[in-house]
Automatic annotation (TrEMBL):
Comp. bias intervals (Basic and acidic residues): 97-109, 134-148
Protein's recorded name: DUF4124 domain-containing protein
Biased composition regions of type Low complexity, renumbered to the chain: 57-96
Domain of life of the source: Bacteria
Residue ranges, annotated region (Disordered): 57-109, 126-148
Upper taxonomic lineage: Bacteria, Pseudomonadati, Pseudomonadota, Betaproteobacteria, Neisseriales
Keywords per UniProt: Signal
Signal peptide span: 1-22
Length: 148
């Protein structure tokens, strides 16, 4: 039973597709306006509009793959340098968040103490990121590879 319904559905779709391709479109002038229809009338002519629904876009240009630059590959750099760059980015993000936070006062911060608490937490994040960066700098200075 299930196979029969599938076969019937496929046959109906196929028949519908054939009838859609075989439909003739007429261009008619009615009250000074151009109208397209499948039913011909008195002022209608067969319209030459090509195959309906089969329009294709131009192909997208091929993209040439590029090898990543050697400097951007973290496996070529010492681990300390990667950690230092991550700490530097974290410090920059914390500083930006602090600058942005000082400029904005939220609606729930009508009380100045709440604003101060938020700013203090942002300042603490900046100082923590700075301490991480300083600690990494100290470990780099103490290793013999840093003096090369």
């Amino acid at each position: 039973m299930n196979n029969i319904t599938r076969l019937l559905a496929a046959a109906l779709l196929f028949a519908g597709a054939l009838s859609a391709q075989a439909a003739t479109v007429y261009e008619c002038i009615q009250n000074g306006q151009r109208v397209y229809t499948q039913n011909p009338g008195g002022n209608c002519q067969k319209a030459d509009i090509g195959r309906v629904g089969l329009y294709s876009a131009s192909p997208a240009p091929a993209v040439q793959p590029q090898a990543p630059a050697q400097e951007s590959r973290p496996e070529n750099r010492p681990a300390g340098q990667v950690q230092r760059q991550a700490a530097q980015r974290q410090l920059e993000q914390a500083q930006k968040a602090l600058e942005d936070g000082k400029q904005v006062r939220y609606g729930n911060e009508r009380n100045y103490v709440r604003y101060q608490q938020r700013i203090q937490s942002l300042e603490a994040a900046v100082s923590e990121a700075q301490q991480k960066l300083d600690a990494l700098d100290k470990t780099d200075e103490s290793t013999p590879e840093a003096s090369r």
